[in-house]
Write a structure and sequence with these properties.
The protein is mainly β and about 170 residues long. It has strands at about 10, 20-25, 30-35, 35-40, 45-50, 60-70, 75-85, 95-100, 105-110, 115-120, 130-140, 140-145, 150-155, 170. The chain has an 8-stranded antiparallel sheet, with no helix packed on it. The protein has a 4-stranded antiparallel sheet with strand order 6-11-12-13, with no helix packed on it. Strand 8 (about 95-100) and strand 9 (about 105-110) form a beta hairpin.
């Protein structure tokens, strides 16, 4: 989802899937993104909502990538992206920053069981006010977390991803 241009409170999916969304709460698109404009969240109730669709019901493999900077405000778990309810049941996939420990957290629902993967113990951690490139992936066998292009966590964890009919949220978890 690019955040360039004024789309009147909407975000446009550039894939052929048509997963367009709307800005909710205190979310805005403003100058100052890593490359052009960016999604700015207020740390309370701002997020981008992308309605559920068949293409977002991922069953075998998922990759999440994002450039992110946060100011250290908000609750202890900064949602990057979430497809499902907090701590399941039904949290198909999600990626978060743990503010207290300054680490990345990746969750997937495998065989209807909530599984988590985290990267605590990073020497530099994730610091407020700094841009980071975060990625998490699952390929039906292994979960991986990357920070600034480096693999920082890898865990064998086979299983089928369980799908949900819950909307995808960028910057917020239901």
């Amino acid at each position: 989802l690019p955040f360039d241009g004024d789309l009147g409170g909407k975000v446009k999916d550039l894939s052929n899937e048509g997963n367009n969304g709307v800005l909710e709460g205190g979310a805005n698109i403003e100058d100052g993104g890593r490359f052009g404009k960016g999604l700015v969240l207020n740390g309370v109730d701002g997020f981008a909502l992308i309605p559920t669709s068949d293409s977002l019901q991922i069953e075998d493999a998922v990759t999440i990538m994002v450039w992110r900077m946060y100011d250290g405000q908000g609750d202890g778990w900064q949602a990057i992206i979430a497809n499902g309810r907090q701590n399941g049941p039904g949290e198909n996939y999600g990626m978060f920053i743990n503010r207290g420990g300054n680490f990345l957290y990746f969750t997937i629902l495998l065989n209807d069981a909530h599984t988590t993967h985290s990267s605590p113990g990073q020497p530099d951690g994730i610091q407020p006010g700094e841009w980071l490139h975060a990625a998490a992936s699952y390929d039906s066998d292994t979960a991986r977390i990357y920070l600034n292009g480096e693999l920082i966590h890898e865990e064998l964890r086979g299983g089928a991803m369980s799908t949900t009919d819950i909307d995808l949220r960028v910057g917020h978890r239901k």
